[in-house]
Amino acid sequence: MTPAGAGTARENGAGKPAPATDGPILRIEDLVVELPGPHGTRTRVVDGVSFDVPRAATVGLIGESGSGKTMTAQAVLGLPPEGATLTGRLLWHGEDLLAATPARRRAVRGREIAMIFQDPLAALNPTQRIGRQIGEVPRRDRLPRAEVNRRVVELLDRVGVPEPARRMRAYPHELSGGLRQRAVIAMALAGNPALLLADEPTTALDVTVQSRILRLLADIRAADGLAMLLVSHDLRVVSHVGERVVVMYAGRICERGPARDVLRRPAHPYTAALVRSVPAVRTRTAPADPLPGAPATPANRPVGCAFHPRCPLARARCRAEPPKVREVAPDRWSACHFAEEVPGS
Amino acid sequence: MSTGERDLLDVRELYVTYGGRGGGRRGGHAAVAGVSLSVAPEETLGLVGESGSGKTTVARCVAGLLRPRAGTVTFEGRPLGRAGHRPPELQRAVQMVFQDPRSSLNPRMTVASVIAEVWRTHPVTAPEGDRTEALHRLLAAMGLDPDVASRRAGDLSGGQCQRVSIARALAVRPRLLVCDEAVSALDVSVQAQILRLLAELRGRHRLAMLFISHDLGVVHQIADRVAVMRRGVIVEEGRTVEVLTAPRHPYTRALLDAALDLDDPVPGDGTADGGAAG
Asked: Is A240 within 8 Å of B266 when comparing Cβ atoms?
């Protein structure tokens, strides 16, 4: 089988006027993640993924279940599941993290690259006060206790937790869902990271809390020049905070480019279908013409283009040849043989 | 607005308390504090609110899974008691579809046996003649292939599972479907399929629906009327288009302000669009 992404590793170099003057903070090149499957088989859950996270930018990584979006984030963090094999390159300021020693990986994780998870209750230790958990990284730096406490209060204050000196003594269960997620964000910020990985950071939250947390993430980003990789199934969230988006399906990239352009004029039939599926809140719309079938899974990835069984544009070529990611318009990248025919593109 | 005697479902002054003692005395936490609502035949009422608003508690009372501390729940004027104590025709009339189809279906049972079980419980709804053929017809109406009949629920995708849950509910020819976050756990592309299916089945089977959801967009698509709950009470109720485009209650307004649509600027952030409209 030819990996679909084999040709994508070089596509980024094509002399585009880059938005930032420096190189990207993170460049993912032809990332392949394989997990052990049944009967000694290997399942390729991430299949030749390449994209950049520019300095101080927010990149939204969109996909449904089985798309490989979370696995991609875990690979970047250096915490892939047991038994996974990773190939390709993860260039962190130019240094390949996949080739780094375990000690170097540990040094990067939690400090240069930090992660916020979907479920703050699962991310926090229920038996420890939140101040202790947030202070873990400063404590590892052997700062004196008063200094650690001062830092914890500062972090909690920064993420908008009221009465931080009192709240740092609370246990996770004593806080509301929104405050818990703020504590988790404080924990992630404790190591002064340059990149924040956020996996569905607001999915478990109520809508009024969600908008405040998104606001907080936007503020932190603006203040610190932090880059963020936001993993989400929710196009609405990504359209609000992402400057760029990457759309994944069955372990591969469908499309990537500037968020607004991609979501307004998709260049892949799958993105177009996702956008149509999002019900509008403020106007009454009829339920969309849905895609047939269920999302393909990496274990049962159709040959050719993985999306072809659900695709309205599919034809013989799509059933035979996996499309490569190609530039279909300036800074617009699509893995569709017929990207130019996507309605509204 | 209640249409009085023409209502199919009528909930009056419902009170539910969790954590209190003796099922009725004071103390404990009031999850629902005086909710009244009604659903007319073939009407869909959307019930929206955030977590802890009490919307699921109302649904569970209607389904008979919870006993209210006070208040009445009637169906065409007949009281709906606890699920197990309802006369069979009332049991059939009100069916429920839950958020997580995987936990509401026994993963080891085949789809055929899931449906056979409800037909055994409600023999009057069991098809005459060839049951296999009737089962395949039912599955086809849900957009499922006949070969799904022999599969175990645990081997199905999330969307297929939710179709089977809806098939199980419709197999007994209900008049009211209570959907509690029925599309919330599904992938977006699958969510659109199930919404389409529900809208179509509602027309074909002349179903009324009590549609509970935290997603205002989904409710805007499917509900005729909407009731907004907060902390155990309904704060606003009316025709969906009116409530969601011209809300009167500050809480409804706050919910709408916080809800994201594709393509708006970050809520409350005047800088997101650089001042340029559109």
From this structure: yes
Burial class, A259, CB count within 10 angstroms (exposed 0-12 / middle 13-18 / buried 19+): buried
Q: Mind listing the pLDDT tens digit for each residue in A149-203?
A: 999 999 999 999 999 999 999 999 999 888 999 999 999 999 999 999 999 998 8
Task: Name which of A307, A240, A297, A299 is nearest A271 in CA terms.
Answer: A307
Concatenating the DSSP letter of every residue in B55-73 gives HHHHHHHHHTSS--SEEEE
- Residue B146 token pair: 């006949």
Residue A206 CA, distance from chain mean position: 21
Displacement of CA A325 from its chain's centroid (Å)? 19
What's the rounded Cα separation, in Å, for the pair B134 and B173?
A: 13
| Among B residues 58-117, those touching chain A with beta carbons less than 8 Å apart | none
Q: What is the predicted ipTM?
A: 0.83
Q: Which residue of B has its CA nearest to A259?
A: B263
Give B-chain residues touching A206 at CB under 8 angstroms: 50-51, 214
CATH homologous superfamily of B4-105+175-258 = P-loop containing nucleotide triphosphate hydrolases (3.40.50.300)
Domains defined along chain A, listed by start: 4-56+63-112+243-280+289-341 (3.40.50.300)
Domain ranges of chain B: 4-105+175-258
Å from A80 to nearest chain B CA? 23
Residues of A with CB under 8 A from a CB of B: 64-65, 177, 206-208, 210-211, 214-215, 218, 233-237, 239-241, 260, 263-264, 273-291, 294-295, 310
